[in-house]
Amino acid sequence: MPSRMYAEQLWEFLWRPETLQRWAGPDTRLIPKSRSRLVLADPLGSRRHGRVLGASAHPFGAAPNSKAFSLSAELEAATGTVALTIAVRPRQWEEGCRLRVTERSLPDPAARQAAANFWQDALRRLDDLLAEVAARRNAPRQALIVIHGIGEQQPGDTLAALARSGVVPPGSVTTADRWVKPDSASDSFELRQFTFKATDRP
To answer: Which of 47, 71, 76, 195 could share a disulfide with 55, CB 3.0–4.6 Å?
Structure first.
């Protein structure tokens, strides 16, 4: 799977607990550390167990500080063990890197198909997650926190007055383009969020 991230960035991103749960499944346990136990769990409840043999980084290509990363593990199977490799390498002629997952010594066609289905679904979720992260980076949002005492003003009046004061470009915020409502991120009814329509101006 190709990615526009640098190899080191993607490798670190893969193993964050909060992102691992998103792409590999909420019950998957996988730490890139030698001798750690691993569990691969699909959404239907199927689980495979094993252990990590090692994780490493090594120089790759002619570019300075360019590295490739790999994790090797073994999974328990009815007829022995299955070799699992997860590798991230820089792309030689393009920006970014490529992620490759390989399983070897699968016992039969049914096991091969099950493994392919698991990793195809996981990589599809990872691709969606990376697109979500890129979208947030390309369209940043800013927050302005206003703290004031409780008076007789209507909820949101202070925020609306602040918007009209020139914090946003004059004339860009009209009554029809602004919304004041309880802050859904908080359990406190005293908090309000003020949203206004985006403009084309930088």
So the answer is: 71
pTM over 0.85: no
Which tokens hold the place of 19?
Answer: 């992102």
Q: What is the full per-residue pLDDT of the chain (202 aa) written as tens digits?
A: 777 788 899 999 999 988 999 999 888 999 999 999 999 987 767 889 999 999 998 887 766 568 899 999 999 987 789 999 999 998 876 778 899 999 998 888 998 999 999 999 999 999 999 998 888 777 666 566 666 666 656 656 776 676 666 665 545 555 556 666 666 655 655 666 666 665 544 4
Q: Where are the domains of the chain?
A: 2-138, 142-202
Report the phi/psi class of residue 175: left, alpha or beta, with left for phi > 0 and alpha for psi in -120 to 50: alpha
Angle at 195 between CA 194 and CA 196, to 5 degrees: 125
Residue for token pair 């199927």: 46
Contact 146, 159 (CB under 8 A): yes
- 101 phi and psi angles, rounded to 5 deg: -115, 130
Question: Which class is 2-138 in CATH?
Answer: alpha beta
114 Cβ neighbours under 8 A, 6+ residues apart: 46
What does the alpha-carbon distance between residue 40 and residue 75 come to, in Å, rounded to a whole number?
9
